[in-house]
Automatic annotation (TrEMBL):
Secretion signal, residue range per the UniProt entry: none
One Pfam entry name: 23S_rRNA_IVP
Organism annotation: Candidatus Taylorbacteria bacterium RIFCSPHIGHO2_01_FULL_51_15
Source lineage: Bacteria, Candidatus Tayloriibacteriota
InterPro entries from the UniProt entry: 23S_rRNA-intervening_sequence, 23S_rRNA_IVS_sf
Protein name listed in UniProt: Four helix bundle protein
């Protein structure tokens, strides 16, 4: 299957689900610093995938996918903190953490394919 647009990239689709779920779960959280940081990191995953794809060059695509992978790590780290601060239930933490990890693995596979 040929990817025609960034919305076709499974990693972007997963990142979007991750981002929307984080926004929903933290909607009423009053720790604005934490909330803003994890939301920005999640949005960064989506946006770097999109930006890299739109630049239409393998070198740029790899670079932006690596940045997106870094944001996946940041989200996972913040999820651990959020769980410890009781901002997330254990089941929400596990779901979000697995989704972030899956997104990171998809990006790694894509990067590897690019060479």
């Amino acid at each position: 299957m040929r990817i025609e647009k960034f919305e076709d990239i499974i990693a972007w689709q997963k990142a979007k689900i991750l981002t929307l779920r984080i926004y929903a779960l933290l909607e009423h959280n009053r720790d604005f610093s934490y909330r803003d940081q994890i939301q920005r990191a999640a949005v960064s995953i989506m946006n770097n995938i999109a930006e890299g794809f739109e630049r239409r060059g393998d070198v740029e695509l790899r670079r932006f996918f690596f940045i997106a992978k870094g944001s996946c790590g940041e989200v996972r780290s913040l999820l651990h903190l959020g769980r410890d601060l009781h901002y997330f239930s254990e089941s929400d933490f596990l779901y979000l953490h697995d989704l972030a990890l899956e997104t990171s693995k998809l990006l790694s596979a894509f990067i590897k394919k690019l060479g």
